[in-house]
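re: that chain from earlier
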Amino acid sequence: MGCCVFNVGNHYVHGLHLFQATSKIVALAKLGRITSARKLFDEIPRKDTVAWNAMLSGYSQLGLHQEVLCLFHRMRIANARPDDFTFTAMLSACADLGKLQGGMKIHAQVVVSGCQSSLPVNNSLIHMYGKCLSALSARRAFEDMNCTNEVSWCSLLFAYTSYGLFDAARGVFDGMPKRTEIAWNIMISGYGQCGDVELCLGFFKKMQSDSHQPDQWTFSSLMNAFSELKEPLCGYMMHGFIIRSGWVKAVEVSNSIMSFYSKLGSHNDVVKVFESIGIRTQVSWNAMIDANMKIGDTHEALVAFQQAPEKNVVSWTSLITGYARNRHGEQSLSFFVDMMGNHIQPDDFTFGAVLHACSTLATLGHGKMIHGSIMRHGFHAYVYVGNGLVNMYAKCGDIQGSNSAFNDILEKDLVSWNTMLFGFGLHGLATLALELYEGMTVSGLKPDKVTFIGLLMTCSHLGLVEKGRALFESMVSVHGLSHETEHVTCMVDLLGRGGYMAQARELVEEYSRTGQVETGLLEALLGACFAHSEVRMGANLVEYLKVFEPQKEMSYVLLSNLYCLSGQWKEAEMVRKTMADQGLKKMPGCSWIEVRNKVTVFVAGDRSHPYMEELYKILNFLKFEMRHPCFSGFKN
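^ sequence. v structure.
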């Protein structure tokens, strides 16, 4: 090995051998000083494969997978010969980035270079195909191996569970020469992620009876599974079991417990667990950010974000999602811009969150800019992002853009169809909504309860009573779906708007006999009473609503308006007085308009806008033109 000269930290180091330089790169990378490691690497005049591998491994260990791919490209240009270590690092990067095509190209290079007999490389191939959800390719790679070990079997098991092929996974599990704790954990985690908690618990019990001890990954998978349940009892019991078993201090377990309480909205419990963690990881801080956002405390979430020693894409996405969820769309967009400025690579969840922010703000200009960024980053084919685009364009008033985004989704899921259906309904395009529904059923996709909410709302808004009836009945008779409150509310609204008051009331009474009547159902019937001047029925409904929601002003306002409409001014005044005595105020109406990518909101009674005088002049002029059309086109 020849001697070289390097410049490290503005100091020249003479006579440093390549071996020593490579060792220093490894040491710097382990300390997280990856920039210094790269600077030293770049100053090596003649790099061997070991030096390239040291730098590739450094990036890989720190999760900088895109840098791994870029460096490998440079390695190929430099004509350096890749070996087993190179390929394992590359396949790991492709796996974590979900780059199936890239992984397949590396597979081809493995074969060409003669490394296909390497056990670590073959295991990395199976792992890559599993992470990229290509279970059949993982199986082929496994079958091509001359020699396998526990890692090979576990990697194939992971590939099947990731793709949801649990029968095949069970076959692999049962056929394993030796079942390790990792294999048990993969099965438990897989069943937990698909929502089959009973099988998840069943494997946990079998694991213990088979003399295998659960570890932090077992308990983490179980807590994550329980956090998806509506009832928290299993989660509470498992938390107690974890405390007794002594694993409660493990970081992974603590993080999963935090996530469980965060999803329950139990903020105090999240804080207790967080404060008990000795060594907090990025996952701990991210869980804390998410927990604060879920209870609407955006300030504390931001404080946790700022205090976190390191911030990854999950940290930024939690913040962006939280602000969007709490209707702070402008802050959500602002943090997305900051994230891009900090050179953090967004993922599909980031784009989904920021598109939601654009939807709540109804800012089409910003939405289009985000769409451009999605195209540049290559996420336009992701169904989750595509669904967000369909929703964003529909909510921002561009139904053509929404339809175009829908057509661009290659593999549409049920959410895609439902989102487009709601979009057409929102824009009053009943014919297109019903045609879309027909196309959805023809494609073999089974509609769900959300589909019928969209269809019934569309029929209600456009007065398609008979079509609505047919769809309502087909839910049970054709699709085997039970009617829920939302569907009955839509149907009551449809019948009420159409003037079928007696039938609307009968439907409410029929549904009330099968379960608890929710206020939305009564409010829909009350709205119909107002539309058709049914004062007596309306007054009776308000008495019911007063009991259920005494602090809600809407029923009082509707009854007052109903009395006014029928000329019963004294009664209307009494309702208003009752509201005032109880401290209830009518929510002021508001409207908004987007001009030059900025949304301006106008609230009834608020004259604080700086151009309010000019706006009133224009409104009065338009009112004059509408009342006196003979003057339209007149120029003064």
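The first strand starts at residue 3 and ends at 8.
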